Amino acid sequence: MDSFASLASFTCRDILVMILRKLGARDLSRASCVCKLWRDMASDDAIVSPAFMEPWKLKEIVGKPVSGSFWRENGIWRFAISHKIVRGDSVTSLAKKYSFQVMDVKRLNSMMSDHDIYSKERLLIPIINPNSLINGTCYIELDTYAKGEVEACKLKMELRNTTGSNGNPSCAHRIFSRPQGIFALQSTQMTMLEHLTSLCCGQLPQLWLPFLYSLMIPRASCVRILQICKAVPRPERLVACNSGPVTEGIGFSPILDLPFRITCYACLEFEKSFTISKIANNADAPSMREKMRQNTSTAMPQF
Amino acid sequence: MSSSTDSPTLTTETTQLSPQPDTETAKPTKKITLKSSDNQIFEVEESVAMEFATVKSFFEDSPSTDTVPLPNVTAKPLSQVIEFCKEQIKFKANPDEAQKKKYNAEFVTEKSDKDLVDMIPVANYLEIKDLLDVLNQAVADRIENKSVEYVRSFFGIDNDFTAEEEAALRREHAWAYEGVDED
């Protein structure tokens, strides 16, 4: 009798919806592993998107993400203001206007130097004050700027803010979707940096590019950098959450002259599409690896 | 079942506890009889029964009846729901948000997981919105940051995934498994 009562009710949609509505994004994600009905209900946009918006008190999110995984992580780093660059804008003038750290913006926009701003239509500005999201209307958009990555593994999405009545299109909030696209590493013989180099055909979240280039890690597929000793002001920005760790190690950047710790994560969705043959196709890979060896053979500590 | 023996005493107890609304309104108390699926009889005041939207509409349709059969409701959760509604009527008579909140919180914290889970379908069936909200929040709080296995046993849900399906889902949702509480 009792088991019947609870069985009937918690496989009943009306009640389930009411409970799921009270859960946060993380709990919803786990709830979708409970049973088939729960999976269908808990991954419904109507349930997931309020859970995504709740912590930031967003008023509305317009648009539909390409993949359900979009909703899973909702750190503030997922949001950005998209500033339309007009004549006379420079990194320093914008830094003053939005009070951001130049380094953060460069990383977010994959800029190697301040001059890169002139080749861009829009500049993404990280949101520092969460209050600016309160009651905001956000648009989900594909990040055209990172389109290659988006198409490959739906890396980034953009949330653009219409900023209400003045309709200023130059201001947009954007959301990155969770970086994906790691594949399993087989060898444990290679050093950490070589692991990463061998991943060079992978899809790298755009915002890590300048940073990883600076570490001499070309196009590493998906690394989770747990700690970067003093190298990056906000290492959490670089954290990509994914499946269980494949390999972990301490690295040393000869350029930055700093040690760092890296965990590589495997994501089985990409095991099939990423094969070793792809590495051979990447013209950069062999030369970079060679360069790496020369550069790091002396400075590399033991792993 | 043990509930069949202890629930009638529970109701008579709470009936004695709540004479205030009636003396205030000074109306003769009309009693309504509710009959649970396991044939327990509950006599409640009309004001309490009218808190149940389902019972209310039943009376609107057929005013002459004096016993309302509740075929989807067993005695134990029903007695708890009646207890809750009696308190709510007191709060309606003299509103005290803080006290009401306190009572609602205590009402759910002292209940076992099973009691809560059993009460939700009853509250849903009887359409008691306030209670449903309190219960759902309590359940959500209890499964917050808990493992999938815990949630399944909490609700008594059978895992209908194949091993492969579940492994794939867990990989897909791996980020949500970090830092989950011990069961």
UniProtKB/TrEMBL annotation, chain A:
<dbReference type="InterPro" id="IPR001810">
    <property type="entry name" value="F-box_dom"/>
</dbReference>
<dbReference type="InterPro" id="IPR036779">
    <property type="entry name" value="LysM_dom_sf"/>
</dbReference>
<protein>
    <recommendedName>
        <fullName>LysM domain-containing protein</fullName>
    </recommendedName>
</protein>
<dbReference type="Pfam" id="PF01476">
    <property type="entry name" value="LysM"/>
</dbReference>
<dbReference type="InterPro" id="IPR018392">
    <property type="entry name" value="LysM"/>
</dbReference>
<dbReference type="InterPro" id="IPR036047">
    <property type="entry name" value="F-box-like_dom_sf"/>
</dbReference>
<dbReference type="InterPro" id="IPR045030">
    <property type="entry name" value="LYSM1-4"/>
</dbReference>
<dbReference type="Pfam" id="PF12937">
    <property type="entry name" value="F-box-like"/>
</dbReference>
<feature type="domain" description="LysM">
    <location>
        <begin position="81"/>
        <end position="125"/>
    </location>
</feature>
Automatic annotation (TrEMBL), chain B:
<feature type="region of interest" description="Disordered">
    <location>
        <begin position="1"/>
        <end position="32"/>
    </location>
</feature>
<dbReference type="GO" id="GO:0016874">
    <property type="term" value="F:ligase activity"/>
</dbReference>
<keyword id="KW-0539">Nucleus</keyword>
<feature type="compositionally biased region" description="Low complexity">
    <location>
        <begin position="1"/>
        <end position="21"/>
    </location>
</feature>
<comment type="function">
    <text>Involved in ubiquitination and subsequent proteasomal degradation of target proteins. Together with CUL1, RBX1 and a F-box protein, it forms a SCF E3 ubiquitin ligase complex. The functional specificity of this complex depends on the type of F-box protein. In the SCF complex, it serves as an adapter that links the F-box protein to CUL1.</text>
</comment>
<protein>
    <recommendedName>
        <fullName>SKP1-like protein</fullName>
    </recommendedName>
</protein>
<keyword id="KW-0833">Ubl conjugation pathway</keyword>
<comment type="similarity">
    <text>Belongs to the SKP1 family.</text>
</comment>
<dbReference type="Pfam" id="PF03931">
    <property type="entry name" value="Skp1_POZ"/>
</dbReference>
<dbReference type="Pfam" id="PF01466">
    <property type="entry name" value="Skp1"/>
</dbReference>
<dbReference type="InterPro" id="IPR011333">
    <property type="entry name" value="SKP1/BTB/POZ_sf"/>
</dbReference>
<comment type="subunit">
    <text>Part of a SCF (SKP1-cullin-F-box) protein ligase complex.</text>
</comment>
<dbReference type="InterPro" id="IPR036296">
    <property type="entry name" value="SKP1-like_dim_sf"/>
</dbReference>
<dbReference type="InterPro" id="IPR016073">
    <property type="entry name" value="Skp1_comp_POZ"/>
</dbReference>
<feature type="domain" description="SKP1 component dimerisation">
    <location>
        <begin position="129"/>
        <end position="176"/>
    </location>
</feature>
<dbReference type="GO" id="GO:0016567">
    <property type="term" value="P:protein ubiquitination"/>
</dbReference>
<dbReference type="GO" id="GO:0005634">
    <property type="term" value="C:nucleus"/>
</dbReference>
<dbReference type="InterPro" id="IPR001232">
    <property type="entry name" value="SKP1-like"/>
</dbReference>
<comment type="pathway">
    <text>Protein modification; protein ubiquitination.</text>
</comment>
<feature type="domain" description="SKP1 component POZ">
    <location>
        <begin position="30"/>
        <end position="87"/>
    </location>
</feature>
<dbReference type="GO" id="GO:0006511">
    <property type="term" value="P:ubiquitin-dependent protein catabolic process"/>
</dbReference>
<dbReference type="GO" id="GO:0009867">
    <property type="term" value="P:jasmonic acid mediated signaling pathway"/>
</dbReference>
